[in-house]
Design goal:
heterodimer; A: mainly alpha; 7 helices; 0% strand; globular; disordered N terminus; B: mainly alpha
Chain lengths: 198, 113
Amino acid sequence: MTGVAEDSTPEASAGDRSASDGNASKAELDRAFEELYRTHLRDVYSYAYYRVGNHHDAEDLTEQAFLQAYRHFERARRESRGRPLRPWLIRIAHNLASNYHRDRARRPEAALDAVEPPSHPHATERVVQGREDLRVVIDRLDDLPDDRREALIMRFALGMSNREIARALGRTGGATKVLIHRAIKQLEEMIAEDGGDE
Amino acid sequence: MSEATSDGRDLERLLTDALRPIEPPEDLSSRVESTLSSIAAQAAAELSQWADELSESELQALRDPRNWVRPVAAIAAGGAAAAGAAVVVGLRRRRKPSGLRAAAEQLLDEIRP
């Protein structure tokens, strides 16, 4: 696996660090939360966007995720024992996104339909082909089972390590490694089938 | 589809390109910060209102740590709804209110000698 190494858990920022004495003042907690928020806003937003497929709902979901995180921040910090809090934040966003799809009785698979691959202002033929390749990848991602697709979003959109993804999805490291491996293999097979059909 | 995805590593490269991080809108940051601030402000206002209604002797009694449990519980019961009202500002989906911890901590800060 290229991407992110198994043990490359990022250094915990001040926002991620747990209070060593367990008696962090309110001001200290607020400062730490602010740092956590600033550090991971893009991660939470990216994850939300790839789960719901539009900016409007992604904004709402991101806001809800941070409000929920704020309520439970002190306890999460205490229980994290110094481990990074990004998986915890993404897990909150993950649960909210699941609720979003459940409440609207929408299949989560529909979300990526609306995601447009990155465009290029001066597209050459090669760039256009590349863009089509990206479109195919995004379309086929939609056809993956939920857990496989979500793991790939965490890995490739957020650059999370296997360990972080495992914590976000509530799985073991080994199970997560297998999950990602199977997701990529399945995606590869689906794309190969598409090629064979043409 | 080009030949690019015939190799797993190329597929990972395509995935990296397809799933680029998305920059949040500029106003989202201030929107969330504003909502978080309003929670704190609402909790403080609620507590202040509650404290204004107390007589001097009641405030004196509150400084005795033996009396701390009851008012904190009272704040918990009565303040949660008002504090939580701010939580839902700007949110499409209503959520259960909170702000209890903020209210309790604020109370303890004010009554500590």
